[in-house]
Amino acid sequence: MAGAIAMRSLFAPPNLGPTSSTGSHVPRRVRRSLVKIRAAIAVEQETQAKVSLIRIGTRGSPLALAQAYETRDKLKAAHSELAEEGAIEIIIIKTTGDKILNQPLADIGGKGLFTKEIDEALLEGRIDIAVHSMKDVPTYLPEGTVLPCNLPREDVRDAFISLNAKSLSELPAGSLVGSASLRRQSQILYRYPSLKVVNFRGNVQTRLKKLHEGEVRATLLALAGLKRLNMTDTVTAILPIEDMLPAIAQGAIGIACRSNDDKMADYLSSLNHEETRLAVTCERAFLATLDGSCRTPIAGYAFKSSDGNCLFRGLVASPDGTRVLETSRTGPYSLDEMVEMGKDAGKELLSRAGPGFFDW
Fold first, then answer.
1. Alpha carbon distance 218, 205 (integer Å)
2. What is the SS3 string spanning 291-336?
3. How far apart are CA 161 and CA 165, in angstroms?
4. Which family does the entry's similarity section mention (predicted)?
């Protein structure tokens, strides 16, 4: 309260004694200064109002920021009031997963570590929407939040990157391949058991730096991220989906808001790409049925085939690649049917895997 009083007194006209109704006893120089101060305050208040229209929460990695900028630009293009300077603010939030980089994700709690702090900021009202890589989002959402929007999906394939080999098959026996993904590890070892896969965490730039420093002979990265960062010149080869089935929701951006915030939900509905949302929902239904975590190599991909139907492929594996179980489904490209396809595929693989398969 004292601060507010002090602020008001700072900008109040000085007490210069009695004046006429025209303020003739106030020097002209002072009056001009007061007009300028009041105008500056008005501009500042207007700017603050613009900033508060939408606050986007995101991780601070270059890729996360690229996805936040993409979201911001699409919002500006769709809504004229958001195109004004300062109308959208991007707020960087450091997650536990960003802070602990020397351990595998499975050892420190799984994928939710990249979303927990952002979800908390959303629920506490410190941000208005949260931008996530969908493959980092757990199959459950925190109570009080919804995820009504997926942006158009980027290329789902994985990229092979090496300084001295053109493909995984060219790597000599015993070569180290860097990857923090058990999904990639299991599929690499399934096809190339003579290779060794080591934990390899960090953002895209960090992992490429480690590669150039000789820590590993090769690494695999999501092509989607490299495209969003304009770094496709680093790619040695693109792995076909038949050889490396992608992670659940790979290449998809999801945007969450509070479940009681109709205004934000309306903004996000204008950006939603329904084909992507349905595909991601199908894949996540598969993952949820398997009760998958970062300790279990799981892959899945749903897409619209040339005849307009949904084609889904799913996979579970042992981390050492000695067992790989695959299945597929085809059906109508509609929500209920696609959710059921994902669930049914998950149930099949659970049955085929047998007791103990997921107890790694």
1. 14
2. CCCCCCCEEEEEEECCCCCEEEEEEEECCCCCCEEEEEEEECCCHH
3. 8
4. Belongs to the HMBS family.
Catalytically annotated residue among 98, 119, 128, 136: 136
- Over the range 29-49, which residues count as b (16 or more CB within 10 Å of their CB) and which as e? eeeeebeeeeeeeeeeeeeee
Determine the pLDDT at residue 5.
39
pLDDT tens-place string over residues 135-191: 999 998 999 999 999 999 999 999 999 999 999 999 999 999 999 899 999 999 999
| Residue 261: HSE in the Cβ half-sphere, 13 Å Cα cutoff | 23
- Please name the helix (run of DSSP H) or strand (run of DSSP E) that holds residue 28, with its range, or none: helix 28-51
- Whether 136 sits among the annotated catalytic residues: the reply is yes
Retrieve residue 319's tokens.
Answer: 């981390």
222-237 pLDDT per residue, tens? 999 999 999 999 999 9
Mean pLDDT value of segment 88-110: 73
Separation between Cα atoms, residue 146 and residue 69, nearest integer Å: 21
Averaged pLDDT, 70-89: 96
Q: What is the token pair recorded at 37?
A: 């101060």
Per-residue pLDDT at 9: 39
CA distances from 174 to 31, 54, 70, 170, 217 (A): 80, 51, 41, 12, 10
Task: Please give the model's pTM, rounded to 2 decimal places.
Answer: 0.82
Question: Residue 177: in which H helix or E strand, if any?
Answer: strand 176-178
CA–CA dist 119, 109 (Å, integer): 16
pLDDT of residue 145: 98
| Six token digits for residue 176 | 């180290």
Residue with tokens 């329904």: 274
132 strand-pairing partners:
254
CB distance 179 to 297 below 8 Å: no
Contact of 248 with 279, CB cutoff 8 Å: no
246/146 Cα distance (integer angstroms): 25
